[in-house]
Automatic annotation (TrEMBL):
Keywords: Acyltransferase, Coiled coil, Lipid A biosynthesis, Lipid biosynthesis, Lipid metabolism, Repeat, Transferase. SUPFAM superfamilies: Trimeric LpxA-like enzymes. It comes from hydrothermal vent metagenome. Its EC number is 2.3.1.191. GO terms for biological process: lipid A biosynthetic process. This is UDP-3-O-[3-hydroxymyristoyl] glucosamine N-acyltransferase. Gene3D superfamilies: Hexapeptide repeat proteins (2.160.10.10), MurE/MurF, N-terminal domain (3.40.1390.10). InterPro entries: Hexapep (IPR001451), LpxD (IPR007691), Trimer_LpxA-like_sf (IPR011004), UDP_GlcNAc_AcTrfase_non-rep (IPR020573). One of its GO terms (molecular function) is N-acyltransferase activity. Residues 327-361 form a coiled coil. One of its GO terms (cellular component) is membrane. PANTHER family: UDP-3-O-ACYLGLUCOSAMINE N-ACYLTRANSFERASE, UDP-3-O-ACYLGLUCOSAMINE N-ACYLTRANSFERASE 1, MITOCHONDRIAL-RELATED. Residues 24-91 form the UDP-3-O-[3-hydroxymyristoyl] glucosamine N-acyltransferase non-repeat region domain.
Amino acid sequence: MAQSIETLFTKIDAEIVGNSHSLIIDAASIEKALPEEITFAGNEQNLRKLKNCNAGAVIVSHSLKDSFQPEELDTTIIFVEDAQTSFIEILSILRPSRLRTERGISFEAHIHPSAVIGDETNVYPGASVAESVSIGKRCDIHPGVRIGAGCSIGNNVTLHPNVVLYPDVVIGNNVCIHASTTIGADGFGYRLIDGRHQKIPHFGIVRIEDDVEIGANTTVDRAMIGETIIGEGTKLDNQVMVAHNCEIGKHNMFVSQVGLAGSVTSGDYVVLAGHVGIADHVHLGTGCTLGSKAGVHKNIPAGETWIGTPAQPMAIAMRNVMAQRKIPNMRKTMKQLVAQVEKLNEQILAIENQTKNQDESPTSQAAAA
């Protein structure tokens, strides 16, 4: 439903420059926004795109106010403290979440008689809940979900289609696990005995604490003994691999295709960019950040940023990169120097031969006599 700019920003501290009565029906990116849509510019790069922007309104951070002239643009500008934060608030108004409906337990779901399911929980057709499972209140167990024996699930948990929980997985409150993720599979542990790979049994569990979100097609393996832990508030992207006995701290952020080998531990607020690989038994200090495709083979100190493979502190790695960029010119200079040295050697040899010949001539010998 269309709403005026003034109405949309009733609860947001904003300075509106332009027509506050313009109607907005949706939100879009700064490149694709139409006259009845709103967008945002949170940095200088996006500001430069405003000249070609067709949006009916643009949210801009106060910090950029002196970087352009709003009057020169044919759109309404709304200045706020943080453009992206305000844009998200407006987006939630224009595109409200679908209301959760209480469907109850489907007759087409397979529920073991010993399972305990809390009030207002939905179990959709095709889901399977094994023996001795406990599920809290207001959970959504979508089609194709498989919950193994002895699992414990808290309140307000959403398991999207085809999520698999192996036996004895423990999940806290307010957890969301996206489609086709597997929690609690055996760790990848083998011993080479008499020329054959013998499987190491994994008797531990996986514990996922409160307020965790796990993306699609992610895997968290059970511990060999003890627990694999995903700490409170941690967010795992799609296609992340967490191996056996890892203990992940609170409020970590792991981007897509991160891979952790066995027994990795981390502090709180650790950030791993895409495709980072961590060797086994490494500790990641609280607040550290690892850049994309970093390969980590030793402990990372708290609060530091490391990049590259093998990973190094960012300042050192950047110096190495700058040095590498100079190599082509250095090779060219080296070739020139080598050629000059060879030429000088030829000249020196020629002078030495000339001197030697003069010393051996009859005239030189007679003069010496």
